[in-house]
Write a structure and sequence with these properties.
Elements: H1 17-26, E1 47-49, H2 62-70, H3 77-84, E2 87-89, E3 93-98, E4 128-133, E5 135-144, H4 153-179, E6 181-185, H5 195-210, E7 216-220, H6 221-233, H7 239-245, H8 249-256, E8 260-264, E9 267-271, E10 274-277, E11 282-286, E12 300-305, E13 316-322, E14 327-340, E15 347-351
Parallel strand pairs: 2-12, 6-15, 7-8
Antiparallel strand pairs: 1-5, 3-4, 5-14, 7-11, 9-10, 11-15, 12-14, 13-14
Helix pairs in contact: 3-4, 6-7
C-alpha cells in the first residue's frame, strides 16, 4: 500500500473546472496555459497543472530536487522576478505588516516637548498584521520513454522551472500594474518628448504620495527603444540629447537618481505563431530593497516557503511517477504568493 502523501494537509492544487477558471482569471487571453490533469488520456509532451495525486511521498525524487534547487535559468528570469518582487522566506501560514503610511510622516513642532510634571506624549501606531498563506503551484510534464534521450530528466525539470518562474514573473507584473498610477506618454518617431523628464517628474510626485522616492525603474524592451528614438529625434537641435540616447541602464539610473534601471526583454507565447513582451511598451517605478523581511516598506514582495531539509530544503521539490509502461510524469512544485504590501508611489508609463 502506498504511503499517504505528506501533503494531505497542505493547500492542494486541484484539477477540473475550478482550476481552469482560476487560471483563466489570472491569465486571461493568454495562449500558453497548462491543461488540467484529468487523470488519464495523456499524450507525450503535455504540460499539465499538477494533480494532487502526483505528490505521493513514494514519488519524491531527491536527486532531481537537489538539481532543481541548484539550477539557474540561463536567461535569469528569476533576476527580473526578484527585481520586481523581492523574495521573503516565510512559513506556509505567515503574517505581514500593512502599515498606515501617513503615521511614518506625522510631525508637529511641539508634540515631543514634555511639560513639567507630565509624561511624554504617547504615540500609538496602527499598523495591521495581515494573516496570509503561500499558495501551492506546480506543473507536470508527460514524457514518452521511446522519445527521450538516455539522460533526459534534468532537461524536463529545467523546462518546468522556466515555465513556473515565467508564470511568477507575469503575476508580479500584473500586481505591479494593478497598483500603479498610469500616465500615457508619446516617445516614438516624430515626437519632441523628453522621456527622462517624464520619469523624473513622476518620481517626485510619487515621493510626495508615499514619502519614499521610488528607487527602481524597469523599462519594457520597446519602451526603452522608444526612449532612444525620442532623443535621436532631437539630437540635431541639442547635441547632448544624442549622448543621452545612448545611455546604458546604469548611466540612466544615475540620471534618474534611482538605485537601478532594468530593461525587461522576456517574452511569452501569446498565440500559435507569436511571442509578446511580458512588460510590454511600459515603464514602471516603485520602491523595493533586496534582503527584505515582512515589515520593510517595499511596495511588492514575493513570499515563498522552503521545504523541510529531508525534502531538499529549498524552494522547489520534484516528483517522478511511472504512469504506464511507457509514460512518465515529472512534477515540480513550489509555494509562493506575490503581495502588493503598499500601493503608494507605484508609477507606470504607457509608451507609444
Amino acid at each position: 500500500m502506498k504511503s499517504k502523501s505528506i501533503l494531505n494537509k497542505r493547500i492542494s492544487v486541484t484539477t477540473g473546472a475550478a482550476t481552469a477558471a482560476l487560471a483563466a482569471a489570472a491569465f486571461a487571453n493568454q495562449a500558453d496555459i497548462a491543461m488540467p490533469d484529468t487523470g488519464g488520456g495523456y499524450k507525450a509532451g503535455q504540460i499539465l497543472f499538477a494533480n494532487d495525486s502526483r505528490f505521493l511521498e513514494s514519488y519524491y525524487s531527491e536527486p532531481l530536487t537537489n538539481y532543481a534547487v541548484g539550477w539557474k535559468d540561463p536567461n535569469d528570469i528569476q533576476a527580473t522576478l526578484n527585481f520586481i518582487a523581492p523574495p521573503v522566506n516565510v512559513s506556509r501560514r505567515f503574517e505581514w505588516k500593512k502599515a498606515v503610511n501617513a503615521e511614518e510622516f506625522l510631525s508637529e513642532v511641539t508634540d515631543d516637548i514634555r511639560a513639567i510634571g507630565s509624561d511624554f506624549k504617547r504615540v500609538d501606531y496602527q499598523a495591521q498584521d495581515v494573516t496570509d498563506r503561500t499558495l501551492n503551484k506546480g506543473l507536470t510534464y508527460i514524457a514518452d520513454l521511446d522519445n527521450v534521450p538516455v539522460v533526459w530528466q534534468n532537461a524536463k525539470v529545467e523546462k518546468l522551472l522556466r515555465r513556473l518562474y515565467r508564470n511568477e514573473l507575469r503575476r508580479a507584473l500584473v500586481a505591479l500594474q494593478a497598483g500603479a498610477v498610469n500616465q500615457n506618454v508619446t516617445w516614438s518617431t516624430g515626437s519632441t518628448a523628453n522621456p527622462d523628464n517624464d520619469i523624473l517628474t513622476a518620481l517626485i510626485a510619487a515621493a510626495s504620495v508615499s514619502g519614499i522616492r521610488p528607487n527602481r525603474v524597469m523599462y519594457g524592451d520597446t519602451a526603452f527603444q522608444n526612449r532612444h528614438i525620442a532623443y535621436e529625434n532631437t539630437a540635431g537641435t541639442a547635441t547632448a540629447y544624442g549622448n543621452i540616447a545612448a545611455y546604458t541602464p546604469d548611466q540612466l539610473a544615475a540620471r534618474l537618481m534611482v538605485d537601478k534601471v532594468y530593461v525587461s526583454r522576456e517574452r511569452y507565447q501569446s498565440s500559435a505563431s507569436a511571442k509578446t513582451e511580458l512588460t510590454g511598451s511600459n515603464v514602471y517605478a516603485w520602491y523595493a530593497q533586496d534582503g527584505v523581511d515582512i515589515e520593510d516598506p517595499s511596495n511588492l514582495k514575493r513570499f515563498f516557503s522552503s521545504f523541510d531539509a529531508d525534502q531538499g530544503g529549498g524552494p522547489v521539490r520534484v516528483f517522478v511517477q511511472q504512469i504506464s509502461a511507457k509514460l512518465v510524469a515529472i512534477t515540480v512544485e513550489h509555494y509562493s504568493k506575490i503581495v502588493v504590501t503598499y500601493t503608494g508611489g507605484i508609477r507606470r508609463w504607457t509608451v507609444s
